[in-house]
Amino acid sequence: MTHTPPTPITDYILQFPPEVQEKLNALRAAILEVVPEATEKISYGIPTFTLKGNVVHFAGYKSHIGFYPGADGIATFADELSAYKLSKGTAQFPLDQPLPLELVKRITAFRKAQNLAKK
Fold first, then answer.
1. Chain segment 34-54, per-residue pLDDT in tens
2. Spatial separation of the C-alpha atoms in residues 55 and 38, rounded to whole Å
3. Which of 15, 20, 22, 26 gives the lowest tally of CB atoms within 10 Å of its CB?
């Protein structure tokens, strides 16, 4: 049996209460389902997924999970994200609601395609 060493993102997630860890792990899994080839790292102090540049980031907070697909990711999916608090490049998913994982996957796929289209 091989042991996978903890990654910086694993360590980041372990800082949170178990119920928040569960949501952060689900979000991470959804992102990796779309970009399994992404490099995972901590950038700006938060989990970051890169593939020819940043694809998406996420972060845990006291009452929400921040999802950072950049300004284009938010603008392109603004109608579907309208139930959430938004800023230019951020969506806030309240901890007391289910995560919109299918939407996260579509936004991540959009950001992946944007990055892969770069020269």
1. 999 999 999 999 999 999 999
2. 8
3. 15
